[in-house]
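Need tokens for this chain, all 332 residues.
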Amino acid sequence: MPGISQFLHGQLFQTPTLPKADLTGQTIIVTGANTGLGLEASKHFVRLGVTHLILACRSLSKGEAAKEQILASTRKTTSKIEVWPLDLCSYVSVVDFATRCNTLSRLDAVVENAGVSYNEYTRAEDNETTITINVVSTFLLALLLLPKLRESAAQFNITPRLPIVGSVVHFWAATAELTTPAQGKIFDTLNDQKSANMAGRYFISKLVVMQCIRELAARISASSAKQGSPIVIVSNVAPGWCRTDLFRHEDGGAGQRMALKVIGRSSEEGSRTLVHGAVAGKEVHGQYVSECQVKPASAFVRSKEGEELQKRIWEELMAKLEKISPGISANL
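Here are the structure tokens for all 332 residues:
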């Protein structure tokens, strides 16, 4: 199976390195920060001295509990930690959150960690829920925050980061689900309940994320070169197979549960790659990052067919985002 050797080598022999950086003065946002990878990454940011940390959570009560856990774990009081509401099932929530971010004096990094894996078909907004959360709302937030990140870059002479959590499972996505739909019909096809392959939906969502990150990074680089606007480093950070509650809706059965116990990473170990994405240099821009290292994305992603699909998906995604937030394309 393509990618399996890369996955097993990384999972078994390449534990992500502990992040090292001085985050004094920085403001960082972590989505999905109340549990799992987001919570552990937030702990690391506080240990590294972040000045202002925003925990973006759907549940404020769970976010406040996470804040108390972070403070108890790190025993540091120098970081200002706030819990802000963000529900990726709601476009209004995403827009409101981004609008609130404009009140920040600076923004150094946004770690887009929130994501879901469902094995049953449900809907949120105008899509199947996995697509709404993992793809549409994720990139809606990214593009809405891009101006603030660039503003901070110019004002404070920094290079902001926008790591978006990906996964090795993009190697194993059934690409025909994306390549066979007619022009302009990829999202319509994915959202068709009658034909939706929910068993592989998480894989497909992470392939779409990988391709959209590559396209977003390329467009940011192009506009930066043409207009002289500051660069924002966008990366696809893969934490590996971790013992989190991501697959609480479908854990793959006894065999997969046993394998996860044997070779799975802790949430803390997996979170190190997220933190790396928030402090890494331009070498990770547009790249697939696993075990805190730039690694090749799937052969399909790097193929001519993959590049063509990448542009098709991006065009469809931008059409959706324009309907949600008219004028958002100008943020690029």
